[in-house]
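Bump. Still looking for (rape) hypothetical protein structure tokens.
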Amino acid sequence: MASCLNLLVFSFLSILLISNSQISDSVNGVVFPVTRDVHTGQYIAQILIGDSPEPVKLVVDLSGSLLWFDCSSGHVSSSRSLVSGSSSGCLKAKVGDERVSRNAECDLLVRNGDVGIAARGELARDVLSFGSVSSPGTADILFACAPPSLLRGLSSGAQGLMGLGKAQISLPSQLAAQTNERRRLTLYLSPSNGVVSTSSVEDVFGVAASKSLAYTPLSSGSSGSYVINVKSIRVGGKRLSVDGPLSVELSTVAPYTMLESSVYTVLAEAYTKAATNAKSVSPVAPFSLCFTSSSEVDFPAVDLSLQSEMVRWRIQGRNLMVDVGGGVRCLGIVDGGSNPVSPIIMGGLQLEGFVLDFDLGNSMLGFGQRTRSTSESLQPESL
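Sorry for the wait, here they are.
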């Protein structure tokens, strides 16, 4: 399936590079190719926006409430317009923003969730050109023009964030409203051939892939984030003495999974005991638990039991251990401090290689990992 997936993503890239005169209005699930920046670990998607479609690189923010970028650089689109402060779009964008627009335009607070900073921006409208699972298309979308100072911490060349959260103004919400489709988000992260789509897993990866997913309920999260609940955690098959349920926020801007300090302490102790054939060595930042070993089999898996012990999200191999060089591998789970946003924030490393189906209409999350079998079909962990 790897070759098919690469061909699929290449086709999406080709669609995104066609001229505006070739773009039709037929839409069936919007698709954006995604790659991982090797220096920052951030996931990058490219959009085409404006009357003469201008490429804009954006960091993918799964919890982001809206799409924003620095409008002061690059081509100035003649089709771009500022949104009125009294419009319905402005009211949707300013949910949670107590400041009322006093000007004719819609000014709002724009957040860089990657580094936790915010600045004032202006809501604007322009034409988005995109590929889809059936044909290319266009849509009028709302986004925020943000100051260059908000780009701090983003990958080189990135001009803003692609917000994929549950807010009414997020990109998936806007596109679903315009295409009259169910609110759905398909996400597949990988170093070079990832995908963000508002279509179903079946449309993007095929029927077999969609039937192989396991599902767990989505909980209500703060600021439109996607949250699931974990009843228990196991290391090497042994259950940790951690009181559940624990909320887990899925994040594409956190490179590694972060645990609340008390939970991390229990997991780190259990993991050190379970990795009996690996030798502990001095930690390498940002990790606290590092080992030397000649084989990956020496590192036990971490299982997150979801709504029941029968439904587990297994983290192992490259999703768990980070090769930092010199024969040293570190546990890719870090201490998130004593007061994080959520007891568990699952980062990009742990999400890579999983196809995620955010079925917002039914408040469910489907997940399945690509296996290394010859067919490389998508299969959830079956325990």
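The CA atoms of residues 30 and 132 lie 4 Å apart.

Edit: fixed formatting.
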